[in-house]
Amino acid sequence: MASTATRVRKVAGLGICVAVFFAPSLSSAIPVPPGLDHCSTLGECLRLLDSVVPATDNGEGSNSEILARDLERFGEPAKQELLKRAVGQQPGWRNVAGAILWSWSSWSPDDVPALRDALRKDPGGWVAKPLGEIGTPDAIKALAEDLSTASDSENQTGFALSHLGAKAIPFLFPLLETERNSYPVAAVLKEMGAAALPFLQEWKALAMNERKPIQERIAGLKAIEALGPLARGECEQLHPLLDNPNRDLKSQSKRTLQAVRDPILLGETVGQCQPKADPYDSLAIDSLVCLRDIASYGSDAVAVGARLMPFLASHNGAERSYGVTVLGAIGYKQAGMPIRDELGDSDWRVVYSAARSLGWLGTKEALPDLDRIASTYWLPEIREMAGKSAAGIRSAVGHTQPFSAAKFAGPRYGWGPGEEPMGVDRWILHDEPACSSGRWDWQGQSFPLARDTRLIDRVERNGTTLDFPDGKLVGVNHGEWGGELSWQPKKTKPEVIDKENVIAILKDGDNAVAVFGLSHMGLDYGRAMSLKRKPDGAWATGRFMQFFAEPEAVTALGNGRFAALNVGRVVVFSSDEGIMGLAECK
Fold first, then answer.
1. What pLDDT digit, counting tens, does each position of 291-336 carry?
2. How far apart are the first and last CA of the chain?
3. How far is 524 from 424, CA to CA, in rounded Å?
4. 266, 270, 277, 288, 323 from 273: Cα distances, Å
5. 157: Cα within 13 Å, side-chain hemisphere
6. pLDDT digits over 504-550, tens only?
7. How far apart are alpha carbons 504 and 481 in whole angstroms?
8. I need a labelling partner for 78 at 20 to 30 A (CA). Which of 27, 228, 374, 529 fits?
9. Residues paired with 474 in a beta bridge
10. Alpha carbons 374 and 168: distance in angstroms, whole number
11. Whole-angstrom distance, CA of residue 184 vs CA of residue 583
12. Is the CB of residue 361 less than 8 Å from the CB of residue 335?
């Protein structure tokens, strides 16, 4: 079997180098010419490679380990020939030579000049790895020089420097003094993590030293900022810099103290964090971001816990869910009984968050309510969470283990399924076997409902309408570009009811139910909303029902009940009762 090579690629949202393994393929891997493993001379082997090396640099590195193994039997002459080709005029050979050198096993400090020249030809490229393996001051200088010309660190150079750890820091620190170099260097320091901590005291002393140039002091603050929560609790002596007359130093001090989650800024942070989302906003993104920041302060945030309580009274279910999560995560025990009351919320996201936070807080008074939820709630995952929290409260420890502050301080994008600590959505659900029959049962009523693969295409192309004697409800869906639900009467002006992507509009007696949703990149949500006719003929929005994700099919069951296929499950709901439960696959 052909082996693979690793190349550091950019990965959106993760912020620093990620090693991505590319499996070789016939169309993209570096070809291994027949006979390479037993050609008798280096010249013969290189001629074989000449026949397969592309003319252009396609960045491909797969099979480099095989090629290196077949050429290393020729020793130093082979390495030197590859180094020459890594700086040659042929772009395809420069890439292939670099990839093979990436997998070469023997290096010495004497190779640094040639490797540096190759890196200059291919900034951030393959030969950064052998320079990192050599690790001499000259090798690190070559890597730092390459990083100084980069716009980010998501490449082989950033990867090599981050793995060199503390011995690379003296070569990197001066680059923090210029704005152009700050971002990639800070990203490398962040990736180093604890390896950079021994420099913390030195950087703090530099930042506070009034005899040092401002740019050096700012560089010290930038380095501490890169450590983030690793430096938490260690930066109190930097507080006076928040009042420094130098605007740049003052501004960087604030960014640094925010990054290390210094509690001196908690009051300001919570002051800007108030419930304000529209009742039907499925994400409430502003509150998600600010509450996540507060949770990243950990137990220090208990001091502002009382100021977060208004989130429990928000008209928006996502905000209530976020507020409940953060109050539990920071350990604000005074919120225990109010959070217990949230177990009766009509939004399943809030109930899940409440069941989880009560376990974190160890609220014994909530045990009867948790037991009830664990045995009767319509969603199995919530029953499971309530049972887990109740067991934790009854244990010798007296509570379940909350997420760490570091979990909330991590990247805001790029989480895998179920890893976003604030996210209560489809990713809390267990995998369910597909319903092969496509038929479901609800309280003795059998009905068909299968995934409609063209549903979203149809509504995006044609929209959806529901006619009434005096006008029509019109739904528009433009995917990531948005949509709207409107009432278009025959005799008066149209009225916009909601600015959201409409999937379906269903008759509900003299009233209606509208179904909304969006699945795009990292977003996936859905909901239904009841619509009631007012005496003047206009429409009032009523009960709100949150789904797990964008619905894949919807149908009316009669008697004011409806069903939505959602992540392989069928949610039954009505305007009067909200979500009633899950249908069973027949």
1. 999 999 999 999 999 999 999 999 999 999 999 999 999 999 999 9
2. 45
3. 12
4. 11, 5, 11, 10, 11
5. 27
6. 999 999 999 999 999 987 788 999 999 999 998 889 998 999 999 99
7. 18
8. 27
9. 465, 486
10. 54
11. 52
12. yes
User: Domain 268-426 classified CATH 1.25.10.10?
Assistant: yes
Domain ranges of the chain: 5-200+231-238, 268-426, 439-585
Neighbouring residues of 468: CB distance < 8 A, sequence distance ≥ 6? none
Helices (H) and strands (E) in the chain, counts: 22, 17
Query: What's the CA gap between 95 and 101, in Å, rounded?
Result: 10
- Phi, then psi, of 261 in degrees rounded to 5: 60, 50
Topology classification of domain 5-200+231-238: Leucine-rich Repeat Variant (1.25.10)
Torsion sign, CA atoms 280, 284, 286, 287: positive
Residue 145: CB partners within 8 Å, gap ≥ 6?
Answer: 116
pLDDT in tens, 366-388: 999 999 999 999 999 999 999 99
DSSP per residue over 474-533, as a string? EEEE-GGG-EEEEEEESSS--EEEE-S-EEEEEEETTEEEEEEEEEETTEEEEEEEEEEE
Amino acid at 275: P
List helix spans (H) across 103-178. Answer: 112-121, 128-134, 137-147, 156-164, 169-172
Q: Which tokens go with 256?
A: 């640094």
303, 299, 506, 558: which is closest to 408 by C-alpha? Answer: 299
Cα angle at 169 between 406 and 156, to 5 degrees? 80
60 pLDDT exceeds 80? yes
Question: What are 132's two structure tokens?
Answer: 């990192």
Q: How far apart are CA 406 and CA 458, in angstroms?
A: 44
User: According to the model, what pLDDT value does residue 418 have?
Assistant: 58
Same fold? 5-200+231-238, 268-426: yes
Report DSSP state, residue 17.
Answer: -
Contact of 96 with 61, CB cutoff 8 Å: no
DSSP 313: G
Q: Is 261 left (phi over 0), alpha (psi -120 to 50) or beta?
A: left
Half-sphere exposure of 186 (CA within 13 A, CB side): 24
- Rounded distance, CA 320 to CA 298, Å? 19
What 3-state class would DSSP assign to 537?
Answer: coil
Residue 371, token pair as written in the block: 């037991």
What's the Cα-to-Cα distance from 7 to each of 98, 125, 160, rounded to whole Å?
Answer: 11, 9, 12
